Amino acid sequence: MTDHPGLFPTFFLSGFECSTFHWKHQGRRDLVAETQHDTKLHEDYALLSGLGIAVVREGVPWPLVDHGGQVDLSRLDPILDALEKCRLTPIWDLCHYGYPDDLDPFTDAFTTRFADYAREVARYVSGRRDGPHFFTPVNEPTFYSFCGGEWGWAAPYGTTRDTRHRLRLALCRAAIAAVHAIREVVPDARMVNVDPLVYVVPPRDRPDLADEAREETFHDTFVAWDVLAGRLHPELGGSPEVLDIVGVNCYSFGQMEYREDGPHAALGPRDDRVVPLGDLLGEVWNRYGRPMIIAETSGLRDGRPAWLRDVMEECLAAVRKGIDLHGVCLFPAVDMPDWHTGEWLHNGICDLERHGDELRRAPYAPLVDELRRWQRLLNRVTRLDEDPNSDPVDLNDVTRAAHAMNFRSDRDWS
Fold first, then answer.
1. Among the listed residues 388, 413, 18, 71, the one whose alpha carbon sits nearest the alpha carbon of residue 194
2. What is the pTM of this model?
3. CA–CA separation, 289 and 231 (whole Å)
4. List of E strands, 9-68
5. DSSP-assigned states of every residue in 283-319
6. For residue 413, is pLDDT > 70?
7. What is the pLDDT of residues 85-137, one digit of tens each?
8. pLDDT for 1
9. Strands, E assignment, 81-120
């Protein structure tokens, strides 16, 4: 078996909810502050180090550091210090559902400002730490376009499908410009382009909506990645090298029943219309042939261990069929609030428990145990050593495990 080094020092990754959207009826939100990740960086990163996780999705809050085009990145200093101390490699999210108040995403100025900002971030972080350097220019342009372009949840508060399509294209144009700007500074920078992996079916009593459901599954899901890859709108400068690493977000609510208005309805775990995750991963691999990661995945409450088990079995079934999977990101590392209600979702590696003004981290032991089990099965570290970046993951270990365990994709989530 020939050498197959991975992109990352560990197969398991994690990350922190870092949305900075301008939210309906509330104004600017900062989820890093709402979860107190900003004041508990060392504790949060030490948790990941102790779990054998060396890669973290971390956000740069564009609307909070870009003031009329003047970019002040000093708020990254404590993050960079904590990353260095805990020996973690970041994947920098540059636009996580938020942009500066003085910008209109449908203008050329938006693209230019975003590219300038991305270039400054690349210069700043590459001057503070050695590579490799990873960036997600725009997180989930497809979901962001629904959220801000059709459902009216966040700025720019669009409420039509046409606005959604225009917003997605604008976000992709900005992302492509950012990739080129980043590589002016860091030529070998790698991009992780993240979007949800979804499957949509018609309601049982509306077979007439089958074409719409199929269109969303097999076309709409891939539009942003297609633009970044240069398959659609090549005049924007996309290419396979711009798309680079495909990050797929996998949640149970990604399999849905079509609704003509508003968000679709999630399928239940025993719905006979559910399709195997491994098959969906294969669709992405066959379309692009690019390195892949599960960029986000998590279950809810006491279903978290079972969800991780199912995702891992499906991932290994897909690896056995040949997809080039470089990691699985347990997201988030600490709990996050429901954007609408503020209630804790209990979907993280750690739950959050309020003690006065403090949100204490409480690792969810059954999920940690399940993570440890998979680390052992894949011959992965369970705690970081002094130099976790000395050797990338040997993906042959993952491939051998996939063939040895011989998992087959199935519809069963339990």
1. 18
2. 0.97
3. 13
4. 12-15, 22-23, 27-28, 55-59, 66-67
5. HHHHHH---EEEEEE---GGGHHHHHHHHHHHHHHHH
6. no
7. 999 999 999 999 999 999 999 999 999 999 999 999 999 999 999 999 999 99
8. 67
9. 89-93
